[in-house]
Amino acid sequence: MRTNKYREQGLLTKQEAAEIAGCHPNTVFNKCIKGDAECTMIDGVFYVTEEVAKQIGEEARKFKEEQAALVARREEMKKRVEEAKNKQLTGGNENAD
Questions:
Q1: How far apart are the first and last CA of the chain?
Q2: N or C end of the chain, less CB within 10 A?
């Protein structure tokens, strides 16, 4: 059918590309819409090559790692603020009765 014809040319739908990239199909779609990824639109369907799918996957992994680092930093900052509040409430003297 039509999809097989494009697959023979090395083009993948967003669903197939998402499986290769290891991300959600909307990630592929958004990259195509924003122009961040090289894609082809045929009959209203976005197609990407396998190389582009792998590139999107790599970018998605980097983004997830950055987000995890930010969450860890945010938690550390919350912990520090709590410690500072507790220290302020006790007047900095932890041995106070």
A1: 81
A2: C
Residue 50 one-letter amino acid: E
* H or E stretch at 46: strand 45-49
Contact 20, 53 (CB under 8 A): yes
pLDDT digit string, tens, across residues 64-97: 999 999 999 999 999 999 998 888 877 766 555 4
Q: How far is CA 30 from CA 37, 46, 48, 66, 76, in A?
A: 9, 11, 12, 19, 32
Q: Is the dihedral of CA 56, 58, 61, 65 positive or negative?
A: negative
Report the amino acid identity of residue 86.
N
CA contacts within 13 A on the Cβ side of 19: 4
Total residue length of the chain: 97
